[in-house]
Give the backbone structure.
Amino acid sequence: MSSEQDKNKYLLKELLGRPGNGSCADCGAADTEWASYTLGVFVCPSCAGLHGNIPNISSVKSVLRDSWSNTEVEFMASTGNDAAKAKYEQKVPAFYYRPTHSDCQLLREQWIRARYDRNEFVCLERQEPYSAEQKIREIFQISVLQYYTAISRLLLPYFLKEMVDWFNAIRAARFHYLQVAFPGAHDADLVPKLTRKYIKEGYMEKTGPKHTEGFKKRWFTMDDRRLMYFKDPLDAYARGEVFIGSGENSYTVLPGLPPLTQGYHWQFGITIVTPDRKFLFACATEVDQREWMAAFQTVINRPMLPQEYAVEAHFKHKP
Ligand SMILES: [Zn+2]
């Protein structure tokens, strides 16, 4: 091995130790044994393989096993993962899903293509229209013939991109919903909620505040202390919501409905007592009743966090 090769190996190892270069530029994995000498990023072996699918943009080499020229090493020294992040991730939408090393190849490859090939996060004009409405219009423009042609392998990459676009379009819609549901919250606080699963969801019957309105079947979702109800499970906006505080703040859940209650069709009642009023629900089965009771009891048993008092106050001031 020439002394120039030795010197370059040494310099590359030194570069690997610099901040940012120790974790894969694309997925964050801890082994950055590969590098793209055209983009100037250090990546893991798995992402290096995906860079191989965009040869027009990226060329990769093993940091330790391949030979490197002086020019290539100088380029790596002048760029690196932190610089690439600043360049290629200027305008990543808050809802956009950034894959990690445990995610499937499909998500990671589309993230790599969006970053380096399509430059989606460098200028806003290049960004995909991540609105569900736009995507639906696009879908209706595909003819039956185009659809069947697309199944052939030639257009497979197009469909893989479509899948990831849909995934992010759904996240964008939910993100918008969360912005409405949590007014004033920072984007960073809402992003974790994009993937949050509901404690419990399903149909129950409910009645209005006077308890004389008759019971109506609604779709309920319980996201921590927030019980929301919808006319239909696919509705974007809730018809209403109930805040469920803690036992020490006078919230209680009881099986059954108050005597003389009328207008329900389902037999398994639940009464939630809050400081303001009683909420009456009816479940179709005893299992549903038991599961909803358990879900309510879990949050009622837990003391309220300081920020949850603010949420409770927000609910009380609603007209
Ligand atoms: Zn990686």
Summary: Residues 132-187 form one domain.
